[in-house]
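Hey, I'm writing a tutorial for new members on how sequence and structure tokens pair up, and I'd like a real worked example in the thread rather than a made-up one. If someone can provide the structure for the chain below, I'll link this post from the tutorial.
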Amino acid sequence: MKPKTQSPDVPLPPPPSRPEGRTAIVSLLSNRGPMSTLQFNVHPGMPELRREAEARGWFARGFTELTIAWLELRWTTDGWKTFHVVSSTDVPCPVVNGTFHLAACPQGTEVEFAIRVGLACHAPDDTAFARDVGELWLNNAGQNFRQTTK
């Protein structure tokens, strides 16, 4: 079967434009009201995550490589009378390189938050397959974190 070819005298429409970076996420979420961001970079080298892996015995069994499987940010502006949840599994993803995009939260708002982290361990030569998974809360030793959004 021969593939169809387009006649050379028929002009092709331009490709759809695609916003990049922060503009893309803001445009995708802009219908949810004011948008702001907070910054909190979660990474496998964090002491809290290394301690959790050690406590679970992962390192002792040789599973020394850690990855972040997912993140969930719970935040409030009213002392936890109400709260909001932002997850790295949401579509479109509101978490990009440590920046959490908060819909319906004006810039300059002080938020209190905690982050639930999905953690996975791997053998050094097998980082594609999780040997064990777990989760933990990052919450500033029970005091939660505070940040003014940008």
